[in-house]
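Lab notes, practical 5.
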Amino acid sequence: MPASKPVKRPIRSYVRRTRRLTVSQQRALDGLWQDYVIDFRPQQMDFAAYYPKAQPLTVEIGFGMGDSLLIMAQEQAQINFLGIEVHKPGLGKLMQRASLAGLDNLKLMCHDAVEVLKHCCGPDSIDRFLMYFPDPWHKKRHHKRRLIQPNFVSLLVSRLRLGGTLHLATDWEPYAMQMMEVLEQQTQLSNCLGPGGYWPYPERPATRFEQRGRLLGHGVWDLLFEKIG
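Output from the prediction step:
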């Protein structure tokens, strides 16, 4: 009997950490999940049905502990936000704070972003994508794990509406250069700051990760691209 071929595992841009949940985070996961979390199903979803108002949809991929996402949802009530994150402590903390703030324009998904985009998001359905400080995977042998790769950017573009935007940020210059190269090779995207240009004064809240990095003297590079075709 021939040996079965080994199943090829997909390359992930993240590692599932076993960070311990605090009591308040676990309480939020138990009590607020139905209010804030959209459970993954491998089928196209009408995300507008999960919000009380039909508004433009912004998707943040990898929101961490959710500090900046919470601020944006509070300050931009005219926009619906969907945060995608695989680490439950961040979901628990963000749900707790969103509930205290009474937010109804914020929903979350706890699943791999690539699968969410492939299966749940229809073509031309998202108005804005945000990815702030994705893991740079510093070692060369780990660069294949970086989220911003040509295939993933093509998937993002296919889900982005015409005129929609893609906003990335990193504090690792080599990764910023790779991001720029990959995005400028995508013919359906246009750099809003001109060829090779970074966004010097980005319109976004500073993340806790960014604030810590700046104290250590790290630079920050923001990229803003628009779908043009």
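Observations recorded by the TA: The radius of gyration is 18 Å. The chain has a mean pLDDT of 90.
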